[in-house]
Amino acid sequence: MLTEKKDKTGLFIGAVCLAVLYVFLILLDNVIPQNSFTLLLVPVLKKGAIYSLVCVSMNLLNGFTGLFSLGQAGFMMLGGYAYAIFSIPKDQHAAVYQYFDGGLIQFSIPEALSNVLGESAGAIIGSIICIMIAGIVAAAFAALIGIPVLRLKSDYLAIATLGFAEILRAIFQWSGLGPITNGSNLLRKYTSLSAIKIGSLKLATFFPFFIAGISIALIVLLINSSYGRAFKAIRDDEIAAEAMGINLFRHKMLSFVISSFFAGVGGALLAMFQTTIQATPFKSAMTYELLLIVVIGGIGSISGSCIGAFLFIACNEWWLRFLDNGSFMGMSVPFFRDGFRKVVFSVIIMVIVLFFSKGIMGDREISFAGLARRIRGSKPSGGKEAPAK
Amino acid sequence: MSRPVVLSLENITMQFGGVVAINNLSMEIPEGNITALIGPNGAGKTTAFNCITGVYQPTNGIVRFMDKVIVASHPTGKDLKNYKGWNADAYAGMKIIDPTPDQITRLGIARTFQNIRLWKSMTVFENVLTAKHMRAKQNVFSATFRANAKEEKRMRDETMALLEEQGLDRFRDELATSLPYGLQRRLEIARALATDPKLLLLDEPAAGMNPQETLELSEFIKQIRDKYGLTILLIEHHMDLVMGIADYIYVIDFGSEIAQGLPAEIQSNRKVIDAYLGVSEDE
Ligand SMILES: Nc1ncnc2c1ncn2[C@@H]1O[C@H](COP(=O)(O)OP(=O)(O)OP(=O)(O)O)[C@@H](O)[C@H]1O
Ligand SMILES: [Mg+2]
Predict the structure, then answer these.
(1) Which of A102, A170, B50, B240 is most buried, judging by how many CB atoms fall within 10 Å of its CB?
(2) For chain A, what is the radius of gyration of the CA atoms?
(3) Which residues approach ligand 1 with their CB closer than 6 A?
(4) Chain A closest CA to B64's CA: distance in Å?
(5) What is the C-alpha to C-alpha distance for residues B132 and A32, in angstroms, rounded to an integer?
(6) Per mean pLDDT, which range of A104-113, A169-178, A249-258, A314-323 is the poorest?
């Protein structure tokens, strides 16, 4: 009884916080006037939400299942391309695929739906369908390469998945696939975040938070289910897991496919955010960035990955930008020039890794139930139930 | 004394490179019995467990469980050329059956490990609950969307009942690895029981226990045998425990059987005393 009540209060606080956040995001898009501050804040928020999702999906694999895989950027790329390819409007094909006779796929799902449902509904539903396709394409590739790769032991798995992502990137840039991937040229003109609105209500910032929120919630539900426990068992001790009847290959595959699905969804959101997509940036450096966030946030902590993602993006694209500008508070500082930001950034990361060797959150989670308990005044008691009142 | 045989090993040989860890080992384990497998260090006892449970593919021989062949092997190719064990041709031509450990567990054979292998990031409760995953009917979607709430509740209730019965319920929310050694061994047994086994393989369950704990363990093993209708195969170095509870004993040394019989017979067997008991009593 007590547990139930506690859970409900926690759930309630969580829901309220989420609602406040979503309302704020909608206000940010529509009511709050743009200024130099919001111009910096908004992209950081959008990209932070997208990176949160991708890092959580990576954490599912690396942190919760103990599979050291480095293919995340590859699956994001698959998702981003799948999204873009199926949402470029018909009359833009000639321009986008100018070197490839207008390309192979000659329809756009959001456009087709817009013709039936009206513009904004078509864009929203169409892009959600394309995002699902993005996830499915990434998951399908994962299922294929998982068959040989998941039998490998940890280091080999990392190398194989990294190799897969790199090879895939090269293949996508090959002109032979041009009619689909546009070779090494940009894909553009597809449905981007700015097209997501209801009437005149803009949802460009709300949308990535919404999709990422649902996806992360699904991952959390999975992790807290019987399957999540099986994943953790594999991570803790493979031999014991197998001896207790957990089929290693099946469960590793499941985790790999699901993780890749959400990486694909993240890739689609990134494509929407960037408004153009190209294979070049999805290289191993991107996977390392994601891995860094997962490690900084805490391997095995969902909230850690989210916090890590927002901090990383904010530092990288906002807070530390001044270090590259050559001046600080009006004074000119000679060594504040291009690249200095990266130096400071590396130092910060080293400090975090040295002093928080388990990352910011370790393997703990932010719990609204714990928060509720604290508000009600009873002492939090590490994992055990609060004393009856 | 003519109980049906639950598990039988037939001429099992296990060779690692040039080392023959088990040579031509045959055993029959009748239903409801507690059978002990003893022998000096490095005799090949754990290797025998690993051959039964699919961790290793034996080089030669077959394993039957409830009259069904569950493991079958014979040396081929390079293994055949280097083969040093008993009769390479005994099973030649037979189809090789090499199951994975989880398939064996699904058939109803559960085990514990000599060097305790609990899941270290999980609580006592979660360790047992996770072992119930194998028998659950849910799929990944029903589990994620909580459509399996009934089954999940049943699994939790059964886990709690199991913990209460083992006297582990006080520790349900402690990390498994924070328990004292003796209780960790108990927990490993509870976890194995959670997979609904017919046959339980215990690899040195009393290792690291004091005499009092060892005594309690003997009682406990008999209790669970009766309560769950189990058949038990046990590796143990504590002779008091073995002589006290075993219905039948196999003794191996350097991979080969040197004796088998009732506890009284084993106790007075010259070969066994020379190979094993003499050594162990000096300890
Ligand atoms: N995977 C392996 N590779 C090579 N040799 C092995 C392997 N596993 C076991 N052995 C060898 O097989 C022999 C038997 O080992 P095993 O672990 O079965 O002994 P044991 O009877 O369980 O001994 P203990 O009482 O010390 O547990 C040893 O000589 C060991 O070195
Ligand atoms: Mg052993």
Answers:
(1) B50
(2) 22
(3) B 16, 19, 21, 39, 41-47, 114
(4) 18
(5) 53
(6) A314-323
Task: Give A378's DSSP letter.
Answer: P
CA dihedral A84, A88, A92, A97 (to 10 degrees): 40
- Output the pLDDT for position A1: 39
Min Cα distance B95 → chain A (Å) is 23
Give yes or no for a contact between A294 and A59, defined as CB atoms under 8 angstroms apart: yes
B230 vs A107: which has the higher pLDDT? B230
In this complex, do B126 and A229 lie within 8 Å of one another by their Cβ atoms? Answer: yes
Residue A176: band (very low, low, confident or very high) from pLDDT cuts 50, 70, 90 = confident
Q: pLDDT for A342-379, tens place per residue?
A: 777 778 778 877 877 777 777 778 777 666 666 666 54
For CA atoms B142, B147, B151, B152, give the dihedral sign: positive
Cβ <8 Å between B110 and A233: no
Give the total residue count for chain A.
Answer: 389
Residues, chain B: 283
Residue nearest to atom 25 of ligand 1 (CA): B41
Q: Which residue has the higher pLDDT, A19 or B2?
A: A19
Domain ranges of chain A: 12-17+40-370
Please name every residue paired with B64 in a beta bridge, in sequence order, or none if there are none: B8, B69
CA-wise closest residue to A319 among A21, A48, A33: A48
Q: Kindly report the number of other CB atoms within 10 A of residue A155's CB atom.
A: 9
pLDDT at residue A337 greater than cutoff 70: no
Q: What's the pTM value of the predicted model, to 2 decimals?
A: 0.91
Residue of A nearest to B155 (CA): A226
User: How many CA atoms, within 13 angstroms, populate the side-chain half-sphere of residue A93?
Assistant: 20
What pairing do the DSSP bridges indicate for beta strands A331-332 and A327-328? antiparallel
Distance CA A337, CA A357 (A): 31
List average pLDDT for each run of 10 residues in chain B, which is 283 residues long: 88 94 95 95 95 96 95 92 88 93 97 96 96 94 92 95 92 94 93 96 92 91 95 92 94 93 91 68 44
| Angle, helix A248-274 to helix A206-223, in steps of 10 degrees | 170
- Residue B40 near residue B47, CB atoms below 8 Å: no
State the number of CA atoms in the 13 A half-sphere of B139 facing the CB: 1
Residue of B49, B98, B102 best to disrupt the A interface, most CBs of A under 10 A: B102
User: What is the tens place of the pLDDT at every residue in A29-66?
Assistant: 888 888 888 888 999 999 999 999 999 999 999 999 99
Residues whose CB falls within 8 Å of the CB of residue B184, separated by 6 or more in sequence, listed in order? B116, B118, B176, B177
Domain B1-108+197-283's class?
alpha beta
Token pair 């051959």 is found at B51
Which residue, by CA, sits nearest to atom 9 of ligand 1?
A: B47
Structural domain spans, chain B: 1-108+197-283, 117-196
The 10 Å CB-count burial string (b at 16+, else e) for A114-126 is beeeeebebbbbb
Task: Round to whole Å and give the CA distance between B214 and B182.
Answer: 9
Strands (E), chain B: 5-16, 19-30, 34-38, 60-65, 68-73, 109-111, 199-203, 231-235, 248-253, 256-261
